[in-house]
């Protein structure tokens, strides 16, 4: 997943924020009642590697993504919810396709609004013409 690879050095920040990702994964695994053996098979790792994951304070984002999908739990949100990152403002990632889709919808709405306004302008022009025509007739004796 390309989005998170930009922040591959985030493990330093995660340690600073006190999040032990391995412990969180272990807690979620046990909360769901999934055995370590089944979990290991689902993420295509050995049982020993699964136990090793529980000891990690940081983890590769591709593996964390696989674990998140397997356990149906967004572990990435734990980190983004903290939003500390040593007080520096961090640019948030926006999916270009999602942004394009949203902008396309907004553009379509603007086109419809523009069309309605153009129709209203034409209607108002007709009213003005009628008023001017009626005013001219009323002034004639």
Order of helices and strands: HHHHHHHH
Q: At the third CATH level, what is the topology name of the largest domain?
A: 434 Repressor (Amino-terminal Domain)
Q: Given the C-alpha coordinates, what overall shape results?
A: rod-shaped
Proportion of residues in β-strands = under 5%
Structural class: mainly alpha
Number of domains: 2
- Tell how many strands the DSSP assignment holds: 0
The whole-angstrom Rg is: 30 Å
User: Averaging pLDDT over every residue, what do you get?
Assistant: 78
CATH class of the largest domain: Mainly Alpha
The biggest beta sheet, please? none
From the 3D coordinates, which CATH architecture of the largest domain would you assign? Orthogonal Bundle
Low confidence ranges: 1-16
CATH superfamily of the largest domain: lambda repressor-like DNA-binding domains
Helix content: over 70%
Count of discrete alpha- or pi-helical segments spanning 4 or more residues:
8
How far is the N terminus from the C terminus? 82 Å
Give an overview in words.
Helices cover 70% and strands 0% of the residues. It is mainly alpha-helical and 141 residues long. The chain folds into two domains: 86 residues, Orthogonal Bundle (434 Repressor (Amino-terminal Domain)), CATH 1.10.260; 45 residues.
For the structure shown, list the relevant keywords:
single chain; 141 residues; mainly alpha; 2 domains; 70% helix; 0% strand; rod-shaped; disordered N terminus
